[in-house]
Amino acid sequence: MINTDHHTPGLRRIIIFLAATVLFVAVLLFLPEEIGWSERATISIMLYGLILWAFAPVPIGLTSIIVLVLLMLLRPVGIETVLSGFSSPAVFLIIGGMMMAIGVNETPLIKRMTFSLLATMGSTSKGIYIGVGLLNQIQAFFIPATAVRASLMMPVLDGIIREADIKRDSNFNKLLYISTAFGISISGVAVLTAAIGNILTVELLRLYVGVSISYLEWFIYTAPIWILLTVAIMFILWKMYTPRERSFDTLQQEMKKKNEEIGKLTTGEMKCIFILIATILIWLTESWHGYHPTFGALFAVMMMALPVVGFVEWQKLLKINFGIVLLIGATLSLGYSLIESGAVDLLEVLVSPQVIVDVFSNPWLAIPITVLISHIYHLGVTNVSTAVITLLPVLISLSAQSGQDPVVISVLSAVTLLLGFILVVETMPNVVVHSTGRVEQQDFLLPGIVSTVASIIIITGVAYLYWPLIGFWP
């Protein structure tokens, strides 16, 4: 008998791909005749890419290639515009970030931090929970990209589960894995380089508005959101998945033993720490020296691989996820193409009727509406990069028409789009955690809904109460 379970996902992907292709052709052929070829073709390609990125019937890197090929084939813009996204600093910042993560992972630094935290705090369920939560947040400062941080945390959680003999259906199991998924998404809020969505937002603001936000400025704007979200979500998850009280003395002793076995800081670790500190200082002082964060990331990679001062082989640093590079480059190229072809002006008219502009003109309504729209949009467009690249130009246009500050609205939306709590597919940390088989979609649902409500209150509250104090709004 043939096991059809293995064929169903493949059939589903084929159906999605064919449906998206039919929609692409229909939009291309049947948009009103007064819409020119450049706008028509670009909008068709944008919708096609949006569906393929969101539902992933083919790998995201392949979708990126499809988008680029169609832009070249249909020629709504010149070849220079089609490939312009790959000349963006954002692409090289992502490349540098992924290479930095590989370099750090070549040292025992993450293991040392893990063992030290758990050796100190690992005697109780709450101590382990807080220790893992702190580790999730600390990594954001020197490991760019949420997917990389989530992947680095899985061996840590596996070790805790194994050493403490935690059952798959226990509350503590769900607490550790779901809090890691949510915590890593939250960890990207305040650190500009810690999430692809942040980097894309800054690039879009530079492109559409001509405004640059530095690493330090982003941190100042969003730090209270980050801190409040971390505390609130950890509290919510603890209350929903409160584990049975038990002693973890054996685990704590094991962590102490492993920490001792690692021994003193190695030369590679000391070099790594020095390079990371230097990189963070470069990022923090951008407003003084004017160097883009890409400089800091590539500087770190250079130092990690150079003879004598470095600590990792160059060939190892090259093993990055090239699909992510293609995604960032293609989405930015699509953004440039929307502008160049005039399609973005057409989209602004379609999505900004006067009644919406009038409501958005009230800043006290614009802020919660932006947060709510971003959350809802992210449920449909689950890929964060795709959501940012398609929603922000609309919000920037709407801000300009209604008299709101597009920078404020963009930062609000970008931060919100990082927070996918309800569906597994909303964020890469959720996907990575779910792929372990230790938690299911239903384990995310209720805590995800409550956490989403909490995030709406926190983000809106910070915008109302804190941003006026620092002159960011209104």
From TrEMBL:
Transmembrane as a keyword of this entry, yes or no, is: yes
Localization per record: Membrane
Name the keywords, alphabetized. Answer: Membrane, Symport, Transmembrane, Transmembrane helix, Transport
GO terms (molecular function) for this protein are:
organic anion transmembrane transporter activity; symporter activity
Annotated membrane topology is: Multi-pass membrane protein
Superkingdom in the source lineage = Bacteria
What does UniProt give as GO cellular component? plasma membrane
A single GO BP term for this record reads: carboxylic acid transmembrane transport
Q: Which InterPro entries match?
A: SLC13A/DASS (IPR001898)
A Pfam short name: Na_sulph_symp
Where are the membrane-spanning stretches? Answer: 14-31, 43-74, 86-104, 175-199, 219-241, 262-284, 290-312, 324-344, 364-395, 407-425, 445-467
Instruction: Give the family, as the similarity comment puts it.
Output: Belongs to the SLC13A/DASS transporter (TC 2.A.47) family. NADC subfamily.
Cross-referenced PANTHER family, in alphabetical order? SOLUTE CARRIER FAMILY 13 MEMBER, SOLUTE CARRIER FAMILY 13 MEMBER 2
Q: What is this protein called?
A: Sodium-dependent dicarboxylate transporter SdcS
Q: Which organism is it from?
A: Lacicoccus alkaliphilus DSM 16010
